[in-house]
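Submission sheet (multi-component)
Chains listed below:
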Amino acid sequence: MSAIQNPFYTPEFHGEYEQISIGRLDLEEGGSIPDCHLAVATFGDPGNPPILVTTWYSGTHQIFREQYVGEDHALDPSRYFIVVVDQIGSGLSTSPHNASGANEAIAMSAFPKVRIGDDVVAQERLLREHFGIETLELVTGGSMGAQQTYEWAVRFPDKVRRAAPIAGTAQNTDHDFLYTRTLMEAITADPGFAGGEYSSNADVQAGLERHARLWGVMGFSTEFWKQKVYTALGFDDMDAFLAGFLQPYFTVRDPNDLLTMMWKWQRGDVARHTGGDLAAALGRITAKTVVIPIDEDMFFPPRDCVAEQTMVKESELRVVEDVLGHLGLFAVNPEYMPQIDRHLGELLDTPV
Amino acid sequence: MSAIQNPFYTPEFHGEYEQISIGRLDLEEGGSIPDCHLAVATFGDPGNPPILVTTWYSGTHQIFREQYVGEDHALDPSRYFIVVVDQIGSGLSTSPHNASGANEAIAMSAFPKVRIGDDVVAQERLLREHFGIETLELVTGGSMGAQQTYEWAVRFPDKVRRAAPIAGTAQNTDHDFLYTRTLMEAITADPGFAGGEYSSNADVQAGLERHARLWGVMGFSTEFWKQKVYTALGFDDMDAFLAGFLQPYFTVRDPNDLLTMMWKWQRGDVARHTGGDLAAALGRITAKTVVIPIDEDMFFPPRDCVAEQTMVKESELRVVEDVLGHLGLFAVNPEYMPQIDRHLGELLDTPV
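Outcome: structure written.
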């Protein structure tokens, strides 16, 4: 019932970042976070036009620092002020495992349900109050970051000039809900999970490994495995790849934090603003929008993304080709980032 | 360590069938089944040209009786003698849960590893010794039944005039292996599984339900869920469909039996006959072959089936359209069987 230590959630693994308090955050599902902290990494001069980058399930700002942001990328810190905000439950921002001090009462299994809208409200307050940012040149993010991107464009249409949701949807699909439930069950079925009151993520090692192997089935594509793409990443066979990459990627993370994010992912839905009318919600978007699915994505397939894109007025579809499927987001395929950079770059160069 | 009762594996749920002993079956992986029984349902006059139908994971002859065989179908008992043989581990043929008498030493967790090739050897012996059948007009089956169909055509090319593997492959893919492992883990992670020495499948209810929900993610297609196809099947929402159909479908079955089939599924590979050379193995096939993938299949996608089809000399690809994906095999979509009947019917009408 009190916060625990996890050395993964430190600058050693995530580089430099700030912890910024936005104060009390009342939540859509009820309850609140008494003192909500957001972990934030910024790139570029604060006087540059601002870009917000949102994070995906299990990811943090660090993947953007390492892969997406740079003078050789569309997210160019010499031209823009790029703010990457880690989502609530990410393990860096306020999360079940680190809820202490003023947040002690919501540690671990007591953590409240958080929705995509809560993150976006928190981010808007952060940008306005802490950085003085009122209007964003671009909001972008992948997967759950795409959910936040859509939420921004629908909730705050006047504040978002351009939007680029990557490999994600505005309204989570039933299939995604079911997939996420199997991920959650892989963790909670582990006796070491103990109803969320484990003393260390290591207690839930077996469940986290099963959860990782489920990502192995859905996170990549059938072609990824068939073409043995992992050999190009330095692994001899698929079990070496799972044991050397996907399993450790997840087992260092906190189970309650992952579950908080998954509950949120399952319920991402901009149509909550319009009584369930998705077309009406997406019709509110005034941002120039580029919708960027990944062709081999098994759970955000392009056809699901197209269906939403056509409901956004000033929008265009750009399909990224990547045999890695959804986890193409990791940008390990050398052909991935040039496509992202081209699509984001052309969007940023479009006058609004 | 001794066989257990499971009322599901009776004629009440599977209609009439024979239990035929083929004697001792020595296995590819070593060990043997002392007295191998095969459950067999036949349709039509034994004097008609014979057709062999093989069964899929968790399935038995009964789905063929109910959906595939009839005078209004290509598998027409007024024209053919149709023999459906339940696979080893199916729960009707010799399986972990029913191994008793001469098979007592291989009950439950002591059951040996069985391969697709073992089933095919057993079936060939059954057909020859019990039915006097030397040559088959057609071998067909779906999923693991397709694995057996390919194995027949490669192992006994002179005995198979026509072959129609449906929604399956000759060499199991790595992706399928990984998917199957998550299914296995859903069962074995249940403390009630007790290393395979539970006293009833009800002890493993939670694990079997998780296993069922994984089928919900991969067994159907993303479009199945998006279009809420289950409402046409009489279910109000996706959880009602899972609770009313997919979960009970699996929870009545035996965990060890399912695991025996999955181990076999994971390792289906005709290239075992040719030192790993798949093209050489498929090159042995002389049967006229129609390869029938289902367009929305998430784990035997058409492109995996095409790759093999092109290695079979006298072959043709026929893709079935079905939003149900892999579990289109259940033939609940009224547009499914007409396609299967057309493809099998045209194959049967092709002179060889």
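Remark: The CA atoms of residues 27 and 48 of chain B lie 32 Å apart.
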